[in-house]
Amino acid sequence: MASQTTATDPTPTTGTGNARFNTDAANWDSNPSIQLATSLAFESYLSRLPPPSELSSFNVLEIGCGTGLLSLLLAPHVRSLTAVDAAEGMIDVLTHKLSSVGSHAQIKNVRPVACLLEDPEDPIIKIDPVTGEAWDGNMKFDLVISHLVLHHVADLSALFKTIYGTLKPSSTHGHQKGGGRVITTDFENFGPEARRFHPEAKMEGVERHGITKEEMEGVLKGVGFEEVKVERGFVMQKRVESEPGKGDMERGPVVEFPFLVCEGRRV
């Protein structure tokens, strides 16, 4: 997920910066920019997913779930959701939400997991969130999602190779359109202004200032995904520093940040 109370992005899937994500976890959800980015992403996901009759059977894996803002929005629409994040502080917040009295306590199909997922066969993701029992070793996911994580990942090909390995191949997939799908969202590198997405004091763990269509198409196709589509999904307005390093996020100008939605299907 993100790293500070002024950012809008989830925790990296590398160890870099996890200390600051852990520190910021308690106040994470109080940032309106984070809430806005999540709600816009959720709308983009739903518009690209199957109808409820099919989606309700999906077992979903989310990488870089943070405090579970997106997880908890999507959970009522799917069979199960395994929410993975490398920052234990973020997972602690999500776990508390699910165990507290309130609306989130009614959600029984989300399983928070604190880990840096690098092996698609890692047993830690092989537990059914609904029953609590171990899945068959050959179990794979119908859908993998990830929101505002990619710009924190040094090796995108390695990440998507892992994602590919967690998805159902078409030969074992129960739906008509073939194997499992990946859908990720992150802000676009639209030029020098994209750097302003993060304040200068919060650049630790930022590997790139957004993603590009060409880069992501190459990564997805390179690890074997088919039906690859990378397109602009939405634009989010975000207040930035008036000058790099000034730290005045409340007083700076509002910049429009386009977000790319990256999709692919395992064969």
UniProtKB/TrEMBL annotation:
MF term (GO), any: methyltransferase activity
Region of interest: Disordered: 1-26
Entry keywords, A to Z: Methyltransferase, Transferase
Lineage top rank: taxon: Eukaryota
Keyword Transferase: yes
Biased composition (Low complexity): 1-17
GO annotation terms (biological process): methylation
Keyword Transcription regulation belongs to the record: no
InterPro entries: SAM-dependent_MTases_sf
The protein's name: S-adenosyl-L-methionine-dependent methyltransferase
Organism the protein comes from: Neurospora tetraspora
Lineage summary: Eukaryota, Fungi, Dikarya, Ascomycota, Pezizomycotina
